[in-house]
# Entry
Amino acid sequence: MNLNTPAFSSFSHGGLKLVYFDEGDPNGPPVLLIHGFASTANVNWVHPGWVKTLGDAGYRVIAMDNRGHGASDKPHDAEAYRPWIMAEDAVALLDHLGISEANIMGYSMGARISVFTALAHPHRVRSLVLGGLGIGMTDGVGDWDPIADALLAPSLDGVTHARGRMFRAFAEQTRSDRQALASCIRGSRDLVARTDMGRIDAPTLIGVGTKDDIAGSAEELAGLMPHAQALDIPGRDHMLAVGDKVFKKAVLEFYKRVSGW
# Structure
């Protein structure tokens, strides 16, 4: 685990202050990292070693705390978290940094945001890495209302729903605004039509842990796309797949093929 926190800056979009870091080789191919639900740029990308891995390989590594998360502003309205709105935050960050095109890598909710970004702004996306979300992108990942209920419960002791307990404990660990996260989980679950997945031309790598009971099949999602490949991350569940060495190795090999300028 890498605990060296980068220096964060901020910009404004949609009336919100959003914080981000810009690390690695400033002249390297840019990679924009979009973290998952209840996480932060540090928890998802710095601590598991992604920033170091990509930076050491010569990439410019950019990530922000999504709205509702980390040190970014936290609206309590579920409508503020629609994935197409959060996708515009990502594009606004690229605009702020003067980056015309980037490799975009998202995990779980961040993968959904990445897809909405690619659909709305295909010319801004050189490649996609979608982690922790397979065919659940189009078919759903089950009932998440209990997660919102767990986040708003008076205490973790009263939460009996297993997945709800997991996310409530994670939110407490990251000292998150639980009201904002409850709004986020209610507002950010819009599905992507299978036909829309087929419109994404960007080269895509889809990585899902073999023990992930949330994401759904990476192979099935890749089968909907013209230039996608699936990756099984062996022995990893939804929480642990993100930092796995097999995932990192596959991403570096993928980027060697698709991201050179």
Notes: The chain has a mean pLDDT of 95. Residues 9-140+192-259 form a domain with the Rossmann fold fold (CATH 3.40.50.1820).
